[in-house]
Amino acid sequence: MGQILAIDYGKARCGIAVTDDMQIIASGLDTVETRFLMEFLKKYFTENKVNDVVVGLPIDLKGNISEVETDILKFIEEFQKEFADITVHRLDERFTSKMASFFISQSGKSKKKRQEKGLIDKVSATIILQNFLEQRIR
């Protein structure tokens, strides 16, 4: 069994999270500048077995798709050409950034560390992945 990787895709940077090989635990992996995302994934996939990728679906509180979705769809198209054997899943990412900020604030990290956007992106990706794992179990 291989890992599942989640991406909290953003215009400037993407948070990345992965499961263990048994697909039980979601952990934050890294934050990558969006322009280097494919390069990062190519390297990661050569070193690790990944079966599935979960990409956040940016929906606002009114149920509208965010404008970054256009970029996400282009990324997914490019991803599927490069990694045809890896299944891509989408998952509603509403509230993940707010939840990430809350969890970080509860962790005892310094105010400067809590405001670090890269950390929020990585924790958001972890929340997306954890939600995906929980939905799979149901």
TrEMBL record:
Subcellular location: Cytoplasm
Protein name: Putative pre-16S rRNA nuclease
Stored Pfam families: RuvX
Gene Ontology CC annotations of this record: cytosol
UniProt cross-references to CDD domains, sorted A to Z: YqgF
Entry keyword set: Cytoplasm, Hydrolase, Nuclease, Ribosome biogenesis
Record bears the keyword Cytoplasm: yes
Family assignment from sequence similarity: Belongs to the YqgF HJR family.
Any one GO MF annotation of this record: hydrolase activity, acting on ester bonds
Role: Could be a nuclease involved in processing of the 5'-end of pre-16S rRNA.
BP terms from Gene Ontology: rRNA 5'-end processing
Ion transport is among the record's keywords: no
InterPro entries: RNaseH-like_sf, YqgF, YqgF/RNaseH-like_dom, YqgF/RNaseH-like_dom_sf
Primary location group: cytoplasm
SUPFAM superfamilies with a match to the protein in the record: Ribonuclease H-like (SSF53098)
E.C. number: 3.1.-.-
Domain YqgF/RNase H-like per the UniProt entry, residue ranges: 2-100
